[in-house]
């Protein structure tokens, strides 16, 4: 008869805890999805025909998946999301580092940053369309102006909270400024940069849909708005759900994996 020692019991405890946490998360997700479908079904009965049933929506999703126009709009929107995400992330990160490292730059940009964070995102979109028209440039400028301040704020906070002792060490050992930037500052900013990137991506794809609905003739947002004007609520929900699922897969599957890989040293 095998006897369990205290060390064996202690070794098994973390495994049991991990298994329990997974079960709790799985149960929570299951209950949330079941509650969502229950509420959806009730609304489809009480607010019919404005809220389609889950079954009708699933059929509409199937039709969208075999439609060429859906993929044409999807690829256009993905290109706009990628452009807005990259531009806002780069501009916001550079500005955030500059504000956090230099007091004069901070004194100049801090009021502008506070103002940009207070302005509602649709205001940027409307003014960009009024100034630049309904072309691609208007959406690109509006999205960059709307998303970059949030990225700057996240990066700036991380720069200001950096370990100042490492700055002193690079000065004592006379490490060149460009090398000190990469070996001292950037590693400290990696968690903040990853957080800013995920926030930038999440905000970018939502605002791209709004821009397309307001001022573009094509794209996922335009397709949703077109179906809404024709009161085709099944198509509205079908396109929206498919696009949301894809964006979540990209965020969790791509950005999530990059984050785990770069932060593996923390584990």
TrEMBL record:
Subcellular location: Cell membrane
Domain ABC transmembrane type-1: from-to ranges: 74-254
Protein's organism: Pelagibacterium halotolerans (strain DSM 22347 / JCM 15775 / CGMCC 1.7692 / B2)
Domain of life of the native organism: Bacteria
A Pfam family reported for this protein in Swiss-Prot or TrEMBL: BPD_transp_1
Major localisation: membrane
Protein's name according to its UniProt entry: ABC transporter protein
A cellular-component GO term for this protein: plasma membrane
Membrane topology: Multi-pass membrane protein
PROSITE patterns to which the protein is assigned, alphabetical: ABC_TM1
